[in-house]
C-alpha cells in the first residue's frame, strides 16, 4: 500500500512538474514574441494587454515594472494607504490569517478598533504599532492608544512609499494626536504638537509631507464641524504649526510636488462663494521644548469662483503659480491624484458614485495633466469586473502604477471585453523633452532589463548620480 501511494505521489509530482514546465515554455514563447515586436511607440499608445495571471507571471518584469498585485481581498482595506497594506502586514504578524471573500466588503470605517469580522487582525495591528512605533511617553504616560490610520505617503518612487500617519486617542484626556512613522526604517518620525479635542474620525483627515521631511500639511475637522488646513514645520521629532486656513472643503486633497523639496503644493478643491481666513503663527521661536503658539497675522480672502479646481501653490508665500478648473462627468466623483515618477504628469482618478458590491460593472477614468501648466493632456476610460466597488473596497484596482523608467503606466480594466476578465493595460506616457529626463529613462530601463536590483545598484553609485536616478527633487 505504501509503495502504491508513493508511486501515485511520484506520478502526481511528475505531472505537476510537466505542467509547470509547459507553462514556463508558453511564457517564454510569449516573451520572445513580445521582444521581437517594435519598441518605437507613440505616446498614449496601448502597447500590451494581458490577464492578471500573465501579469504576475512575468509580463510586469518584461515591461519594466516592479512585482505588483492589483487584486486585494483584505477585510481591513479601509485602513490601507499608499505605502501601507494591512493585509500583507497582518499576514506577517499572524501567518494563519487568510484572505476573505471579495463579496464581504461592507465596512467603510477607517478605524482599526476591533470589529465583528476583523477583531483579531485589528488587535494585532494595534499592538504592532503601539509596541514598535509609539513612544512610551505618549502610549503609557499620556494614555494614548492607536485608533486609526490617516493615509500613507503620497509620493511614488524609491524609498518614499513606506511612511504613514497614525491617529492616536486618549480616552482619559479626550484628545486626538497624530504621529508619523516610517515602516521601512521601523522608526517613529515625529508627532504634531496640536492635541485636537475629542475623538476625530480618521476617514475625515488627509495629510501629506514634503520630500525632505521638513513640512506636514493636514486637513482636519475642528470645532463646529469646520474643516481646516493646518501647516507644520518639523523641528527634530516635533511638528510645530505655522499656518491655518479655514474653512476649506472636506473633499480637498493635496500633494507636495516631488520635483521640489518642500516649496510647491498641488491642491484639488471644490471652491464656492465664501471667505476663508489664513492665520499665521510665529515661527521664530520654534524649538522642540517650546509648544506655545503665538498668532502673528490673520488674513481674510474672498473666493469669487465656484467649481472644482487644480491649483499649484507656493507653500512659503501661499501665492498661486497656476490654476485650472476641473470638469467632472455627471455621476462621477474625484478619488485621488498621483504624480508620475519624473513629475512630468499628474494622474487624477475618478469613479462613478454607485455601489458595485453586486453584479453591476463599475466605471472609472483617468484624467492626465501636465504637472507644470496643469493643462489636461489625455482622458483614459476604464471599466472593472463586478463586485469591485470604489465605495467599499480597496482602491488597488483603481490605482495605476508606473515602470521603473517612468515612461509606462499600467492599470486594471475590462474595457472591450464586456467585464468578463480582469486585464492589465500598459500604455506609453509622454516624455519630457530634455536630455536629462531622456537619459534617466534610458538608464533606468537598461537597469531593469538587466535584472539588477535598483536599490542595490544605487548604493554603489556616487551620491549625486544616485539621487538623480532615484528621482530626488531638483529644485528648492
Element layout with pairings:
Elements (H helix, E strand, L loop, with lengths): L1 H35 L9 E6 H11 L23 H8 L25 H14 L3 H6 L2 E9 L10 E8 L4 E8 L4 E6 L3 E2 L8 E4 L5 E7 L5 E9 L2 E9 L6 E4 L7 E8 L3 E7 L13 E8 L4 E8 L5 E7 L5 E8 L5 E8 L10 E8 L5 E8 L17 E2 L5 E6 L9 E6 L6 H15 L4 H6 L3 H7 L7
Parallel strand pairs: 5-10
Antiparallel strand pairs: 1-23, 2-3, 3-4, 4-5, 4-6, 7-8, 8-9, 9-10, 10-13, 11-12, 12-15, 13-14, 15-16, 17-18, 18-19, 19-20, 21-22, 22-23
Strand content: 25-35%
Mass-distribution shape: globular
| Low-confidence runs | 1-13, 97-117, 154-160
Helix content: 10-25%
Q: What is the number of beta strands?
A: 23
Characterise the protein shown here:
Helix 3 crosses helix 4. Helices cover 21% and strands 33% of the residues. Strands 2, 3, 4, 5, 6, 7, 8, 9, 10, 13 and 14 form an eleven-stranded mixed beta sheet that branches. A four-stranded antiparallel beta sheet has the order 1-23-22-21. Strands 11-12-15-16 form a four-stranded antiparallel beta sheet, with no helix packed on it. The chain has helices at residues 2-36, 52-62, 86-93, 119-132, 136-141, 435-449, 454-459, 463-469, and strands spanning 46-51, 144-152, 163-170, 175-182, 187-192, 196-197, 206-209, 215-221, 227-235, 238-246, 253-256, 264-271, 275-281, 295-302, 307-314, 320-326, 332-339, 345-352, 363-370, 376-383, 401-402, 408-413, 423-428. With 476 residues, the chain is an alpha+beta fold.
Amino acid at each position: 500500500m505504501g509503495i502504491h501511494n508513493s508511486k501515485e505521489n511520484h506520478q502526481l509530482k511528475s505531472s505537476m512538474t510537466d505542467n509547470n514546465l509547459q507553462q514556463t515554455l508558453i511564457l517564454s514563447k510569449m516573451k520572445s514574441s513580445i521582444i521581437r515586436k517594435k519598441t518605437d511607440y507613440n505616446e498614449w499608445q496601448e502597447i500590451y494587454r494581458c490577464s492578471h495571471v500573465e501579469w504576475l507571471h512575468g509580463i510586469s518584469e518584461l515591461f519594466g515594472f516592479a512585482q505588483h498585485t492589483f487584486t486585494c481581498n483584505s477585510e481591513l482595506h479601509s485602513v490601507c494607504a499608499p505605502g501601507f497594506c494591512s493585509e500583507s502586514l497582518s499576514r506577517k504578524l499572524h501567518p494563519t490569517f487568510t484572505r476573505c471573500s471579495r463579496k464581504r466588503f461592507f465596512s467603510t470605517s477607517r478605524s482599526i478598533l476591533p470589529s465583528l469580522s476583523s477583531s483579531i487582525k485589528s488587535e494585532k495591528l494595534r499592538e504592532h504599532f503601539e509596541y514598535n512605533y509609539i513612544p512610551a511617553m505618549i502610549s503609557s504616560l499620556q494614555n494614548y492608544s492607536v485608533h486609526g490610520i490617516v493615509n500613507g505617503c503620497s509620493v511614488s518612487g524609491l524609498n518614499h512609499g513606506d511612511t504613514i500617519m497614525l491617529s492616536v486617542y486618549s480616552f482619559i484626556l479626550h484628545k486626538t494626536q497624530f504621529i508619523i512613522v516610517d515602516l521601512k526604517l521601523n522608526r517613529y518620525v515625529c508627532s504634531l504638537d496640536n492635541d485636537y479635542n475629542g475623538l476625530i474620525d480618521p476617514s475625515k483627515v488627509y495629510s501629506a509631507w514634503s520630500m525632505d521631511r521638513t513640512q506636514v500639511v493636514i486637513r482636519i475637522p475642528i470645532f463646529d464641524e469646520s474643516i481646516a488646513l493646518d501647516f507644520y514645520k518639523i523641528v527634530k521629532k516635533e511638528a510645530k504649526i505655522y499656518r491655518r486656513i479655514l474653512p476649506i472643503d472636506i473633499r480637498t486633497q493635496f500633494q507636495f510636488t516631488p520635483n521640489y523639496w518642500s516649496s510647491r503644493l498641488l491642491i484639488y478643491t471644490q471652491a464656492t462663494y465664501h471667505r476663508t481666513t489664513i492665520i499665521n503663527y510665529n515661527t521664530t521661536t520654534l524649538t522642540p521644548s517650546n509648544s506655545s503658539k503665538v498668532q502673528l497675522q490673520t488674513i481674510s480672502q474672498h473666493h469669487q469662483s465656484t467649481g472644482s479646481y487644480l491649483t499649484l501653490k507656493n507653500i512659503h508665500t501661499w501665492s498661486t503659480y497656476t490654476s485650472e478648473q476641473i470638469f467632472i462627468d455627471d455621476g462621477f466623483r474625484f478619488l485621488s491624484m498621483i504624480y508620475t515618477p519624473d513629475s512630468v504628469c499628474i494622474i487624477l482618478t475618478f469613479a462613478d458614485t454607485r455601489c458595485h458590491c453586486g453584479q453591476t460593472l463599475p466605471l472609472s477614468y483617468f484624467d492626465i495633466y501636465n504637472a507644470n501648466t496643469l493643462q489636461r493632456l489625455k482622458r483614459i476610460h476604464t471599466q472593472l469586473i463586478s463586485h469591485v466597488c470604489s465605495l467599499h473596497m480597496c482602491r488597488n484596482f483603481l490605482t495605476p502604477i508606473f515602470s521603473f523608467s517612468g515612461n509606462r503606466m499600467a492599470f486594471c480594466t475590462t474595457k472591450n471585453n464586456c467585464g468578463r476578465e480582469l486585464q492589465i493595460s500598459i500604455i506609453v506616457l509622454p516624455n519630457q523633452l530634455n536630455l536629462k529626463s531622456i537619459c534617466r529613462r534610458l538608464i533606468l530601463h537598461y537597469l531593469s532589463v538587466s535584472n539588477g536590483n535598483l536599490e542595490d545598484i544605487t548604493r554603489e553609485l556616487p551620491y549625486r548620480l544616485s539621487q538623480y536616478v532615484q528621482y530626488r527633487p531638483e529644485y528648492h
